[in-house]
């Protein structure tokens, strides 16, 4: 079973920041938080990952709470092309553990 | 980033025939690859873990004799759907384990008539 819980759907106005929450209250000390997204009829695309510090790359920012039980993915300026299903996944970073997908959050960016 | 390809991107076949789907890691070697299936409006469901040079490990409820997996090299894994039926129609996605990320292929849309 997936180790995370996410809201099933969210809307965001184009140009605004999209904040996608994820709860992972049973995360272990050696597990990372990964975010992927899947645009309709495509394979999942890696976005970002982190262990305990906040992370930022060209796509998004990841904010992890101090107790590591939850995190937020931030898309700073959402565009229509960001409409997708976003998956929050926890797993050991360098292992060959299988990735188990939960239902994710369906983000709709509205013009 | 690393690239994973799948071939074909879509296939239509008659009921009772077998279909082979290829998954390739283009610029890295992958000891481990994974196969997923996704039905409309559902999340990805892991079918099996494919390890180079050894037998695949199937998830509970996945028929190993129906979904044959071969991982003969560090860059290629194949999934063969044997005696396909309409209920096997789905979106099949593979992924390959890189250094610390899993990289996903673009998916193969299988339609069984």
What key attributes describe this structure?
heterodimer, A: 111 residues, mainly beta, 5-stranded mixed sheet, 4-stranded antiparallel sheet, 9 strands, B: 113 residues, 7-stranded mixed sheet
Your description of this structure?
The complex is a heterodimer of chains A (111) and B (113). With 111 residues, chain A is mainly β. In chain A, 0% of the residues lie in helices and 47% in strands. Chain B is mainly β and 113 residues long. Chain B is built from no helices and 11 strands. Chain B has strands at residues 4-7, 10-13, 19-25, 32-38, 45-51, 57-58, 67-73, 76-81, 90-97, 102-104, 108-112. In chain B, a hairpin with a 5-residue loop joins β5 (45-51) and β6 (57-58). The radius of gyration of chain B is 13 Å and the shape is globular. The N and C termini of chain B lie far apart (37 Å). The model of chain B has no long low-confidence stretch (mean pLDDT 93). Chain A binds chain B through residues 34, 36, 38, 41-46, 49, 85, 87, 93-94, 96, 98-104, and chain B through 1, 4, 6, 31-32, 34, 36, 43-46, 49, 91, 93, 95, 97, 99-107, 109.
Summarize the helices and strands and which ones pair or pack.
The complex is a heterodimer of chains A (111) and B (113).
Chain A: E1 9-13, E2 18-23, E3 31-38, E4 45-50, E5 55-56, E6 61-64, E7 70-75, E8 84-92, E9 105-110
Parallel strand pairs in A: 1-9
Antiparallel strand pairs in A: 2-7, 3-4, 3-8, 5-6, 6-7, 8-9
Chain B: E1 4-7, E2 10-13, E3 19-25, E4 32-38, E5 45-51, E6 57-58, E7 67-73, E8 76-81, E9 90-97, E10 102-104, E11 108-112
């Amino acid at each position: 079973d997936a180790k995370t819980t996410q809201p099933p759907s969210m809307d965001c106005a184009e140009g605004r920041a999209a904040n996608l929450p994820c709860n992972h209250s049973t995360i272990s000390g050696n597990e990372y938080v990964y975010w992927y997204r899947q645009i309709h009829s495509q394979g999942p695309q890696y976005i970002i990952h982190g262990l305990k510090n906040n992370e930022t790359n060209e796509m998004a920012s990841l904010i992890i709470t101090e107790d590591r039980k939850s995190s937020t993915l931030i898309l700073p300026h959402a565009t229509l092309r960001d409409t997708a299903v976003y998956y929050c996944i926890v797993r050991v970073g360098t292992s060959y553990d299988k990735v188990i997908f939960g239902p994710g959050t369906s983000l709709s960016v509205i013009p | 980033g690393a690239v994973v390809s799948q071939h074909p991107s879509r296939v239509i076949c008659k009921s009772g025939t077998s279909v082979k789907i290829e998954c390739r890691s283009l610029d890295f070697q992958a000891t481990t690859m994974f196969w997923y299936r996704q039905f409309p409006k559902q999340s990805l469901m892991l079918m099996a873990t494919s390890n180079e040079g050894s037998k695949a490990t199937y998830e509970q409820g996945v028929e190993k004799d129906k979904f044959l997996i071969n991982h003969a090299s560090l860059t290629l894994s194949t999934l063969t759907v044997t005696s396909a039926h309409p209920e096997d129609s789905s979106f099949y996605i593979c992924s390959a384990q890189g250094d610390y990320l899993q990289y996903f292929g673009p998916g193969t849309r299988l339609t069984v008539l």
